[in-house]
């Protein structure tokens, strides 16, 4: 059963003001309905005027993603009755979008690149935020906050060319990185990237899944929906063309009520806004170094592997951090940052921007000098990260190493420890003597545990070998 | 020409209850409004005049927003700075 996935990605542009009025978009720490004005409240007699910077940002994305920008584009009204927009319509683009076509290249299954084509990119205003309150049929009501109403969005629509949730995740990672490199979006802002997905099994109806509010939820939502559709096909049940909502907390999709599906938007050109003739601007737009170019440069300049280069450039802040700490020792900085640091950060849900460069760089130097084992260095790193997370001033690695006695000692001083471990683990020693391959690793592990990681595992393995030599 | 069916359909989408006598009334009103557009269409150049200008922009400069009190001045029964609406789900 072939899976076919297409995505629609909404990305908030990080302009200072909204798309059609001068209200500030920086409302994060402010109360509801404090960043609104007669224009974004849709009061009678007001007129919207397009934010030039938003158009420039959208064109920057269009250029980076190899889109064609038509000579003429215009805004349109999408009419619907829902309190998230006070005007009873959303200003968006319909049959004359800002950009057409384009593509993104992602890592293909089994190496190489796969090109995912785009249908279009258009601009629109974000609706307001609704908070549903109360319980029961009569008690329920809805609270409306229009601070977000009118924030500029671009909607990027892909062709149905993604074939698995994993591929969709790769696509989104690449897109997110590109948008971040372009400096047009704030990845740390909640809800700045939102995804709808069209999913079908080849030969059957397609289903639209909405409400995937975090890009991390996409893989889970898609996996659930594909499993559901395949299950229906196996049971000979009919898949109906419908819109489903993703319920993040439960990890499931549920059918939207048919009324919400009533697509009768009666689009027409927005008479209050002048159309755009901006195709000639594209040439003047300068693009920064984008993820692929940076990946290739990392491989060439630092001599690191393609996998490490890909990981390190997959996030702008991570790439910048790596370049700040790597000088003179990329062969250590690359695996440490891509394999170890990133794992520790994910575990703590900590942004790389919080890692103290100076301390991290000093730790890499200790590793390079060989004054600590990798195990001890990880322990030091964890301590430093925990100190930062707890709001303390982190200690320098040298201080921690001295305080905890983590300094790597010469192998010979562990002979006694090794001897006692061998005595306590006669069964493993016997296994080793009978040629069982895993036994030596177990014994090394026991010594590492006894020395709290201060010993060099290779050295310990050598000592064990010596002591067991008859 | 707007028909009674058109009005009934829009009313359903907007979740507004409209009875038969109102249907008659609103259909008549809709058509009366559309007649005004018929007059506009007869003007030379017509509605195209709107699109004679392109690329009208403003710079990305913050202007003061309304005070929350002002925003809520016409809202019925606001709550904690929010506008309160009937349930929608």
Automatic annotation (TrEMBL), chain A:
It is an enzyme of class 6 (ligase). It catalyses: L-aspartyl-tRNA(Asn) + L-glutamine + ATP + H2O = L-asparaginyl-tRNA(Asn) + L-glutamate + ADP + phosphate + 2 H(+); L-glutamyl-tRNA(Gln) + L-glutamine + ATP + H2O = L-glutaminyl-tRNA(Gln) + L-glutamate + ADP + phosphate + H(+). The keyword ATP-binding applies. SUPFAM superfamilies: GatB/YqeY motif, Glutamine synthetase/guanido kinase. Keywords: ATP-binding, Ligase, Nucleotide-binding, Protein biosynthesis. Residues 320-468 form the Asn/Gln amidotransferase domain. Belongs to the GatB/GatE family. GatB subfamily. Heterotrimer of A, B and C subunits. This is Aspartyl/glutamyl-tRNA(Asn/Gln) amidotransferase subunit B. The lineage of its organism: Archaea, Methanobacteriati, Methanobacteriota, Stenosarchaea group, Methanomicrobia.
From TrEMBL, chain B:
Gene3D superfamilies: Glu-tRNAGln amidotransferase C subunit, N-terminal domain. The keyword Ligase applies. GO terms for biological process: translation. It holds the Pfam family GatC. The keyword Protein biosynthesis applies. Its EC number is 6.3.5.-. It comes from the Archaea. Keywords: ATP-binding, Ligase, Nucleotide-binding, Protein biosynthesis. It catalyses: L-glutamyl-tRNA(Gln) + L-glutamine + ATP + H2O = L-glutaminyl-tRNA(Gln) + L-glutamate + ADP + phosphate + H(+); L-aspartyl-tRNA(Asn) + L-glutamine + ATP + H2O = L-asparaginyl-tRNA(Asn) + L-glutamate + ADP + phosphate + 2 H(+). One of its GO terms (molecular function) is ATP binding. Signal peptide: none annotated. Heterotrimer of A, B and C subunits. Allows the formation of correctly charged Asn-tRNA(Asn) or Gln-tRNA(Gln) through the transamidation of misacylated Asp-tRNA(Asn) or Glu-tRNA(Gln) in organisms which lack either or both of asparaginyl-tRNA or glutaminyl-tRNA synthetases. The reaction takes place in the presence of glutamine and ATP through an activated phospho-Asp-tRNA(Asn) or phospho-Glu-tRNA(Gln). Belongs to the GatC family. This is Aspartyl/glutamyl-tRNA(Asn/Gln) amidotransferase subunit C. It comes from Methanocalculus taiwanensis. The gene is gatC.
């Amino acid at each position: 059963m072939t899976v076919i996935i297409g995505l629609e990605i909404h990305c908030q542009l990080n302009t200072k003001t909204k798309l059609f009025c001068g209200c500030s978009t920086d409302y994060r720490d402010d109360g509801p309905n404090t960043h609104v004005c007669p224009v974004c409240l849709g009061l009678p007699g007001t007129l919207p005027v397009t934010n030039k910077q938003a158009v420039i940002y959208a064109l920057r994305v269009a250029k980076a993603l190899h889109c064609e920008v038509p000579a003429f584009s215009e805004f349109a009204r999408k009419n619907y009755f829902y309190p998230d927009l006070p005007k009873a319509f959303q200003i968006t683009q319909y049959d004359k979008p800002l950009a057409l076509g384009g593509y993104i290249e992602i890592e293909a299954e089994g190496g190489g690149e796969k090109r995912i084509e785009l249908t279009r990119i258009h601009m629109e205003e974000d609706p307001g935020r609704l908070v549903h309150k109360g319980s029961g049929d009569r008690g329920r009501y809805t609270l409306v906050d229009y601070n977000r109403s009118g924030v500029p969005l671009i909607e990027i629509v892909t062709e149905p060319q993604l074939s698995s949730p994993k591929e969709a995740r790769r696509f989104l990672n690449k897109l997110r990185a590109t948008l971040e490199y372009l400096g047009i979006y704030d990845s740390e802002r909640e809800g700045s990237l939102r995804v709808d997905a069209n999913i079908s099994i080849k030969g059957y109806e397609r289903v639209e899944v909405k409400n995937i509010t975090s890009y991390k939820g996409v893989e889970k939502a898609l996996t659930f929906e594909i499993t559901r559709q395949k299950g229906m096909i196996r049971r000979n049940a009919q898949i109906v063309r419908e819109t489903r909502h993703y319920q993040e907390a439960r990890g499931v999709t549920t059918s939207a009520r048919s009324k919400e599906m009533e697509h009768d938007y009666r689009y027409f050109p927005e008479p209050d806004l002048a159309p755009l003739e901006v195709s000639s601007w594209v040439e003047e737009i300068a693009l920064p170094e984008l993820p692929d170019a940076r990946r290739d440069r990392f491989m060439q300049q630092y001599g690191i592997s393609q996998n490490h280069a890909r990981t390190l450039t997959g996030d702008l802040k991570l790439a910048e951090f790596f370049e700040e700490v790597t000088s003179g020792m990329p062969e250590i900085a690359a695996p440490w940052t891509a394999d170890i640091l990133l794992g520790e950060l994910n575990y703590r849900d900590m942004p790389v921007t919080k890692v103290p460069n100076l301390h991290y760089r000093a730790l890499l130097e200790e590793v390079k000098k060989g004054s600590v084992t990798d195990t001890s260095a990880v322990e030091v790193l964890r301590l430093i990260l925990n100190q930062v997370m707890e709001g303390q001033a982190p200690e320098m690695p040298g201080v921690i190493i001295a305080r905890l006695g983590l300094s790597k000692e010469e192998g010979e001083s562990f002979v006694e420890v090794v001897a006692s471990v061998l005595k306590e683990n006669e069964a493993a020693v016997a296994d080793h003597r009978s040629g069982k391959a895993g036994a030596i690793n177990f014994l090394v592990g026991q010594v590492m545990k006894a020395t709290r990681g201060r010993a060099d595992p290779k050295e310990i393995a050598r000592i064990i070998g010596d002591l067991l030599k008859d | 020409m707007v028909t009674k069916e058109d009005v009934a359909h829009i009313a359903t989408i907007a979740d507004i209850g409209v009875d038969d006598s109102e249907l008659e009334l609103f259909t008549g009103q809709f058509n009366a409004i559309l007649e005004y557009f018929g007059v506009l269409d007869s003007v030379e150049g017509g509605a195209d005049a709107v699109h004679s200008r392109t690329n009208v922009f403003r710079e990305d400069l913050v202007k003061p927003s309304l005070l929350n009190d002002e925003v809520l001045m016409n809202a019925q029964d606001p709550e904690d700075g929010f506008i309160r609406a009937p349930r929608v789900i």
